[in-house]
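To close the section, here is one more complete example, presented without commentary so you can practise reading it yourself. The ligand is magnesium ion.
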Amino acid sequence: MAGMDKKKVLFIDRDGVIVKERQVDTYESIEYIPHVFEALREISRKTDYLLVMVSNQDGVGTSAFTYEGFQGPADRIFSTLRGEGIVFDEINIDLSFPEDNLPTRKPLTGMIDRYRSAEYDMSSSFMVGDRLTDMMLAESMGCRGFLLNADELEVPDELVSTVAMKTGSWLDIAGYLIPDGTLPHRTAAVVRNTKETEISLSVDIDGTGEGRIETSLGFFNHMLDQVVRHSRFDIAGNVKGDLFVDEHHSVEDTALVLGEAVRKALGDKRGIERYGYEIVMMDDTVATAAIDFSGRPEFIWDVRFSMEYIGEFPSELIRHFFRSFSSSACCNLYLSATEGGNSHHTAEAVFKAFARAMRKAVRRIPGDTRVQSTKGVL
Ligand SMILES: [Mg+2]
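Output:
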């Protein structure tokens, strides 16, 4: 299992990949490749690839390409990237001419040989480049490559298996490397009919926060809208309850079905964060939520409402909603809020904090397929 902890590297060429291919020796000659910031920022945020620059700059230090002319714009490129949260772990720039025949010149691997050690997983690593020499470097390193903006290049047979993708867009590379975009969505649908309620509900954990749960209870609908929006789950639900009795069954059963749907959608919970927490402020109230999809129901509630009813909705049912969710989702759920706030604000802050904590807890860790428990089961 030690192999799973090896570091993965995204080797990146500079010219033709980060900036347009030309001699960059003035600030005016820096022209960025479209979407490079967006793609590298998402890759940095959502994956654990180390970013390593591997670039050749022919003949820096000659009168035609002075060292001073090269260095200022080069520093500016990296400082601009850093400002967008894109930080290179190592920057390797070889300044030789082809005829110098140095081992640091691509496709030779002299600049990055140290990555061929047990600390790194080359088979899961990639090179982004715009030339066949970049792909040859990838092949020599035992990794694969993305050939960017190289429409005119014919990939020779011996490199076909090295080139993971040939594309004109950085966004395709980000989509390839960020697992969330390609893994199947985690979904479940639950139908539950009793003498007290008839409920159908579907959930897509990997959604964008679309849909709603219709319960015929105005305030409750409003709170469930917060859950949909702030969890970013897509949820479609319809609840027909015995409202002629009171709201109790509708609220309880909606929570039970939502919890069951989330539990089923999570499946064996491989590769999820498992824990999530959030603090949400809403005007005069601060709410805190913590959730652990541990497989065990436990519920801690430290919220008091100053009003018995919020609109026509009994505020005591909010506690009951979350307790019911905890029991059917099999999660530990902690909710608290500061006292003395407007009850509508308190309720809304609690629902939002709950939803956002859940969103963090269900997040997939890119490339990780383990269950986040030393027991091996959640
Ligand atoms: Mg290049």
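Once you have examined the tokens, check your reading against these statements. Residues 13, 15-17, 21, 129-131 surround magnesium ion (CB under 6 Å). Helices lie at 36-46, 67-83, 132-141, 170-177, 218-231, 248-266, 316-329, 343-361.
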